[in-house]
Amino acid sequence: QVQLVESGGGLVQPGGSLRLSCAALGSGFSIEAMGWYRQAPGKERELVASITSGGNTKYADSVKGRFTISRDNAKNTVYVQMNVLKPEDTAIYYCNAHYWIEVRWLEVWGQGTLVTVSS
After folding, report:
1. How far is CA 19 from CA 27, 38, 42, 68, 102, in A?
2. For 32, which of 62, 79, 96, 107 is 20 to 30 Å away at the CA?
3. pLDDT tens, 6-56?
4. Number of neighbours of residue 46 by Cβ within 10 angstroms
5. Residues 6 or more apart from 64 whose CB is under 8 A from it?
6. How far, in Å, are 2, 12, 35, 41, 95 from residue 119 at the CA level?
7. How confident is the model at residue 73, as a pLDDT?
8. Residue 1 pLDDT exceeds 90
C-alpha cells in the first residue's frame, strides 16, 4: 500500500515562507496526480494546489501567485512552496495522491501537517 509522508509544517510569521514536502512510498505504482488540501478550524477542506503527471497545475484563487507546486517524479515527491504567508493560511495541510497499481486506480491521503502563520 502506498503511504504519503509529509514534512515542512510549522510556525511562521506573516510574510514568511514555508515549503511542504510529500513523498509517496511504496512499490509497483505510478502517480497520476498529487496535491495539497487544507482545512482550517470551522471551515471546509479545500484544494490548495495540485499537479498531474503531465505537469498541469491548479491553484486556489486565494493562493495563486504566492504558492507554487512542483514535483520530482524520480522521488515520487510533490512540493508546495508557500510565500508571503498570511494568517488565513493557517490550517492543517493534507497531501493527496491518485495513483495506479497495475489497472487499479487508488487514492491515498497523508496524515496532515499543521501550518501556523502568526506573529
Report:
1. 26, 14, 24, 9, 32
2. 62
3. 999 999 999 999 999 999 999 999 999 999 999 999 999 999 999 999 999
4. 13
5. none
6. 37, 8, 28, 19, 26
7. 86
8. no
Q: Tell me if 36 sits within 8 A of 105, measured CB to CB.
A: no
> How far apart, in whole angstroms, are the C-alpha atoms of residue 54 and residue 68?
16
Identity (one letter) of the amino acid at 37?
Y
- pLDDT tens digit sequence for 70-79: 999 889 999 9
- What is the 3-state secondary structure of the chain? CCEEEEECCEEECCCCCEEEEEEEECCCCEEEEEEEEEECCCCCCEEEEEEECCCCEEECCCCECCEEEEEEHHHCEEEEEECCCCHHHCEEEEEEEEEEECCEEEEEECCCEEEEECC
Which residue type sits at 102? E
Are 117 and 86 contacting, i.e. CB atoms less than 8 angstroms apart? yes
